[in-house]
Structures are given as structure tokens and as C-alpha cells.
Design a protein that fits this description.
Blueprint: H1 2-27, H2 32-40, H3 46-53, E1 61-63, E2 83-90, E3 93-100, H4 111-127, E4 131-137, H5 156-167, E5 172-180, H6 186-189, E6 193-197, H7 208-215, H8 221-225, H9 227-233, E7 239-241, H10 244-256, H11 281-284, H12 295-299, E8 309-310, E9 319-326, E10 329-336, E11 341-342, E12 348-349, E13 353-354, H13 356-372, E14 376-382, E15 384-385, H14 389-393, H15 396-408, E16 414-423, H16 424-429, E17 439-442, E18 447-449, H17 453-470, H18 477-495, H19 497-502, E19 508-509, H20 515-526
Parallel strand pairs: 3-4, 4-5, 5-6, 6-7, 10-14, 13-15, 14-16, 16-17, 16-18, 17-19
Antiparallel strand pairs: 1-2, 2-3, 8-9, 9-10, 11-12
Helix pairs in contact: 4-5, 13-15, 17-18
Length: about 550
């Protein structure tokens, strides 16, 4: 056991080291030379602005750090989607912060940038959190304008959200700290209050070059839309600040005077650390994802005092359901059990698979948590639902539908952590991205796809070989092996949590030891938004 534990620990610690190394690179944005250029202009970088704005020593939960990772290589990449987003604290008040990173293509908007900004607004809307925009962007990246500009979930949706958020009473503060061009000019001006930094901040629908070509007028950008123009002539901005620091200090003053709002009222007591050593998670999670393990070992190292109240413990054992506290917050946990279990009927059930009895149990548990106003936490290591004639005849689709319906219609906030596998319909039932988790994060051990690499590669191989044979082509064993290796390599790349994080299918990748922080800050955010909708599962399969 000790040898196995040490092997697992070494493997997971190596993955965490790789994660932290990748994050260090991401934090440099467009690189050190670009950072020096921003400093030479008297500007702070996006991350420096956030660090200065937020309360000293307070937690910051970044989301979307890996957005755009390994994408747009043909144009030099777009680290972090050219924008930094997260949940932090200003004057003790939780808020969302969005800061354009001018070191990345002058803060230009790529398709993933729009998606990430919309995610930030979604988090603000769902949790009724104030939002701060630190604007410094050259506008749409023109070579990709067709992927950014016209569709429902493109750039324009951001300004629609500005208007809707304002009508909902969600505070929006914007600081123009660099360029703010064209349609992007609407974002700060549709916010409740707009600040502008003298000398570096500018906002206009068209810059001087475009004005010259459009109407023949010769004018410089500062006169056209600088701080003096908009603070003293047009009245477009509300506050003129001499530098970045003064603008950020002023935002802190605005936050200092805000009134309180009603809370959702989720149960919280004094937080307590797990009684068992959290760091043992590294050794308890097998490095070989085929090997079974007991998910309870993981849960007991995530919850306060290592105390867990199981629900229907001896029934539907491939899903663990029960109540606990995380950092003082009451939670209902739904987790995939990865060890092989035996039902009272004598059936051996594979870990990580959802059977009819476990789906039935989870549906009932989820409904109970909604009844009692307890947030839900999903811990995913799921291969999917059980297949085969026995399961089909037993109504697995019906029971799965019941679980999906109970979960999808939940009105309590949901939080999802991808511990290991997240395959197919299992991802859906366990509250994947499509089911509106307030936050969804992955451990470096996660894999996300419609099915496992081995299953997918063999299926794709069979299709390709059949296609070649139908055309009369002979496929030698050597060619078949080479084909399988190529398919497997491509599919495995797409299974990676970094592939998922790059596309914002998950909000980020975390060290397992950060799981409690993610869930706690997430529930604290959700507590700002009282539940207004009654719980109704609609027509449910029984």
C-alpha cells in the first residue's frame, strides 16, 4: 500500500508542478518585453491593477486563466484570452473583476475573449455580484471579426448584458485605463460609473485614422476622446484620474459606500479543517485511472472535521450522496464511487458507472437538497451510465432522465469538480458545463470527452478501416497499428483538462488542495443571490 501511495503521490505532485509552471507562463501575458512597454507608458499590467485594487492579503479566485491555451497559433496565440477575470474582495465586498491585458495583442478581442467576458458577466448575474471592468483594449481582432462580431453569443451580447445587469440592480464600475474603441466604447459608458485615466485612457467610436478616412477630419486621439475631452467637454466619463493608482483608489472609495443586499441564507457555521490530512489526497488517487479507489477517502479529506452524513448508504452504491460542510458551508455532495461494489441483489457493480439504483438515489437526494436550501457539490469521476440488455430492460434511460431532470431544474447553486473521468452522459448527469454549475473546475487528473481514449480510438479505427475496405483498399496489421496510434494521440490531446480549460468548458484547473477554497468562495458568491424560483422538476420519469 505504501509503495502504491508513494507512486500515486509522486505522479499527482508532478501534475501539480506542471500546472503551476504553466500558470507562471500564463501570468506573463504577452511576455516580459510587452510588460516593460506598458510600464514605460506609466501603466500597470492587468494583473498588477487587480492586485492593487483588491484588499491586501485577500483571496482571489481566477477563472479562465487557460482560456485560449495553445489556440490561434497562426497569429502568435492569445494567452488567457487577452483578459484576466476572477472573483475577489474590494473593501471586504465580494465582486467580479475583468481586466483587459494590453500585453496580449494590445488587448484585442479574439473569439475566446468574448466568451470569457460573457462568462464573467454570467457569474456576476447568477450571483448578483458587483462587477469592475478595467478597460484597456484595441477592440475586435479584425482578421477574426466574423467569429466575434455578429452572433448571439458574440461581442454585442456583452453590451446587452450591461443593460440587463443595470436593470437588475447589479453594480457595474468601469475604468478606462488605455484604449477603448468602437463598439467596445459602449461597455464602460453602459456601466453605472466610468473613470478615465489622464494621458493613457481614451474612448471613441472611431480613432483618428478612421475619422480621417471616413469624413476627412484631421485630429489626434487625445483631443478626439481623451480624459479632458470626456470629463470636461462631452461629459461621457464621470471621474478623471491622474494615473492607474488614483483610478483604482477611487473604485475602492465607491465600493466603501455601497449598501448591503438581501442574502440567500445558506447555512454556515465556524469553518473547520478536515480532521484527516488533506495532502493524503495526492497518494489516495491512483495514477492509473483504470484502478478502483474509494471516493469516500477523497471526500473525508475535503470536508470540515472529516464528517459526512451519508444518504441511502447501502443502496445505489456507485453514487455517494450525503451532507457535510466545506469551510463552514452546508453542502449536499453527489460523488462517483470508483470502487467495485456489490448490491444486496448480488450484482457486482463497476465503480464510476451510474446504474438505475444510483441514479434513482441521486435524483431523490438532489430534490431533498432543493427542499432544504442546501447547495450541491458534484465530484466527477464518471465513465457513464451502465449499458447492455439488463440495464436497458431495467429502464436505465428512464432513471438517468429522472436524475438529469432533478439536477437540471435545481434552484440551489451547483458546483462541479472534475476529479478524474468525465465521459459522455455521465458528464451531463453529474452537472457538466451545460447544466449551469455556478463554478466548474478540474483537477490536473481530469479527462473530459464523450468516451475514454481507448474506447473512442478503437471505435474510430473500426470506422476508418471499414471505410478503406469498402473502397477496396487493403489494410495491413502494420498500417492498422499506425492508424490506431495516430487516432489515439489526437484523441488523448482532446481529453486533456488543458484542452477543456482553453475552450472554457471548465473555469480552470486547480491543485486538489484548492478545492475547498473554490467551493467556499463559490457558495459565498451564491449567497448574494436569494433563490426566487420555486423548485419544479416538471414531468419526471418514474
Amino acid at each position: 500500500m505504501d509503495i502504491e501511495f508513494n507512486k500515486n503521490e509522486d505522479a499527482l505532485k508532478q501534475l501539480v508542478f506542471q500546472l503551476k509552471s504553466k500558470l507562471k507562463k500564463v501570468y506573463l501575458g504577452g511576455g516580459e518585453k510587452r510588460i516593460e512597454k506598458e510600464h514605460a507608458k506609466g501603466k500597470m499590467t492587468a494583473r498588477e491593477r487587480i492586485a492593487y485594487l483588491l484588499d491586501e492579503g485577500s483571496e482571489f479566485l481566477e477563472f479562465g486563466a487557460f482560456a485560449g491555451d495553445s489556440m490561434y497559433k497562426e497569429v502568435g496565440g492569445c494567452p488567457s484570452g487577452g483578459v484576466v477575470t476572477g472573483i475577489g474582495y474590494i473593501k471586504g465586498r465580494q465582486c467580479v473583476v475583468v481586466a483587459n491585458d494590453a500585453t496580449v495583442k494590445a488587448g484585442a478581442w479574439f473569439p475566446i475573449t468574448a466568451k470569457k467576458n460573457l462568462r464573467a458577466q454570467e457569474i456576476s448575474i447568477e450571483n448578483k455580484l458587483p462587477i469592475v471592468y478595467l478597460v484597456d483594449s484595441a477592440g475586435v481582432f479584425l482578421p477574426m471579426q466574423d467569429e466575434i462580431f455578429p452572433d448571439k453569443e458574440h461581442f454585442g451580447r456583452i453590451f446587452r448584458n450591461n443593460a440587463v445587469m443595470s436593470s437588475m440592480g447589479i453594480v457595474q464600475i468601469a475604468a478606462i485605463m488605455g484604449s477603448c474603441v468602437a463598439g467596445g466604447a459602449y461597455l464602460p459608458i453602459m456601466s453605472d460609473e466610468a473613470l478615465i485615466v489622464e494621458g493613457t485612457g481614451s474612448v471613441f467610436l472611431a480613432g483618428s485614422y478612421l475619422v480621417k478616412s471616413a469624413i476627412g477630419e484631421s485630429i489626434d486621439n487625445e483631443t478626439l476622446g481623451g480624459a479632458t475631452t470626456h470629463s470636461e467637454i462631452s461629459g461621457v466619463t464621470d471621474y478623471k484620474c491622474k494615473d492607474d493608482q488614483e483610478a483604482l483608489d477611487h473604485i475602492r472609495k465607491i465600493f466603501d459606500k455601497m449598501g448591503d443586499r438581501p442574502a440567500a441564507g445558506f447555512s454556515r457555521v465556524t469553518p473547520a479543517a478536515p480532521a484527516l490530512n488533506e495532502k493524503e489526497v495526492y497518494g489516495l488517487l491512483p495514477s492509473d485511472r483504470v484502478k478502483p479507489y474509494d471516493m469516500m477517502d477523497i471526500i473525508l479529506r475535503l470536508v470540515d472535521n472529516s464528517e459526512f452524513e451519508p444518504y441511502k448508504e447501502l443502496y445505489g452504491q456507485t453514487l455517494i450522496c450525503g451532507l457535510a460542510r466545506i469551510d463552514g458551508w452546508a453542502v449536499g455532495i453527489v460523488a462517483n464511487q470508483r470502487k467495485i461494489v456489490k448490491s444486496k441483489k448480488g450484482e457486482m457493480q463497476m465503480g464510476g458507472v451510474i446504474y438505475s439504483d444510483s441514479a434513482d438515489k441521486a435524483a431523490r437526494f438532489i430534490m431533498n437538497c432543493n427542499q432544504k436550501k442546501i447547495p450541491l457539490v458534484f465530484l466527477q469521476d464518471v465513465s457513464g451510465f451502465m449499458v447492455g440488455s439488463k440495464s436497458e430492460h431495467g429502464g436505465i434511460i428512464k432513471d438517468g432522465a429522472k436524475m438529469v431532470s432533478a439536477m437540471a431544474n435545481s434552484v440551489v447553486p451547483k458546483f462541479t469538480i472534475l476529479v478524474g473521468n468525465s465521459y459522455g452522459a455521465g458528464n451531463y448527469a453529474m452537472c457538466g458545463k451545460a447544466y449551469d454549475p455556478r463554478l466548474i473546475y478540474a483537477w490536473p487528473t481530469a479527462q473530459l470527452a464523450v468516451m475514454s481514449g481507448a474506447a473512442a480510438a478503437n471505435t474510430l479505427l473500426q470506422i476508418e478501416v471499414s471505410s478503406k475496405k469498402a473502397k477496396g483498399e487493403e489494410v495491413t496489421p502494420e498500417a492498422e497499428k499506425e492508424l490506431l496510434e495516430r487516432i489515439t494521440s489526437k484523441y488523448n490531446e482532446e481529453l486533456s483538462p488543458y484542452y477543456a480549460a482553453a475552450r472554457l468548458w471548465v473555469d480552470g484547473i486547480i491543485d486538489p488542495l484548492e478545492t475547498r477554497k473554490v467551493i467556499s468562495m463559490g457558495i459565498e458568491a451564491a449567497n448574494h443571490a436569494p433563490i426566487e424560483k420555486p423548485y419544479n422538476v416538471g414531468v419526471i420519469q418514474t
